[in-house]
User: Fold this.
Amino acid sequence: MQNSYSDSYAAAGVDVTAGYESVELIKAHVKKTVIPGVLGGIGGFGGMFELPLGDYQNPVLVSGTDGVGTKIKLAQLMDKHDTIGIDCVAMCVNDVACSGAKPLFFLDYIACGKNYPKKIEQIVKGVADGCVMAGCALVGGETAEHPGVMADDDYDLAGFTVGIGEKDRLVSGEHLKAGNALIGVASSGIHSNGFSLIRKVFNINEDTIKVHYDELGSTLGEELITPTRIYVKPLLTLMESVRVNAISHITGGGFYENVPRMLNDDTLAVIEKDKCFSKPIFDLIQKTGAIPEHDMYNTFNMGTGLVIAVDSDKADEAVRLLNAAGEQAAVIGEVKNGEKGVELL
Assistant:
């Protein structure tokens, strides 16, 4: 008797029925992200979202895409897959919010060696949780098996988001100038950058992630897997009351690469390190790896996930609003005239 197509595909390493099972398992997680504007459900050839054009005079769409890098390896070692999706959402929606836009919807892409439906469900659960935190809808995605290309237990995760903002209220840096106050907003930890260095410093494996550090109050793995903080709602709340002149999301490249991206020519960001937020994990990394301080600030967020520029007379109000929204915020420096760049004191 001739094998069916699905039997033949399974023999090639792709389990079609596992794909169907994954879709059924994730439906409840996707449903909790539904917001006004979502049209249809998952399973179509395209995710649909009705734009709230009546709420804007000159609407601008702002998009962002990103992944979580080698933090994936940590999730795989720990066999903990329910938060890595939060990281993926955060990396995308935080960037969009830094432009002054509200994320509307999100799509994910999971590439895996073999589709294990329960694992896929946990990954998508994290994505859905992140979307709820950001106030956006998960309208679609793709799970692709890559047998022969990836090992059975391997997977990678990336995402894409689209947001909307009023053209004249977008954060463009147009109003940034010398004298602006710089506000730092605390990170939740490493976030999703620098893990290739971390894996080398700690020789990350199944044993080293289980080591408990008193200064962390947890195992190394528990600290490192902490999800990236999603800043969307606090930022949008802040922008309703205070004009934000520029924002830098401190991701890969740390302070030295990201802060200059928010600056105009002939402006210099001067930041006082002792006013920034610190976390024990960064001291532990630097000490264990004997890493020069400059390299630390050129790789990690060092405890500060966002740097926000506002007019100096609005700094106290901005800090108050961010703290009231559940963040840790403080004035950490100012913008001065000078060669474009960042100076850490």
User: Anything to note?
Assistant: Residues 241 and 318 are 8 Å apart (CA to CA). The two ends are 76 Å apart (CA to CA).
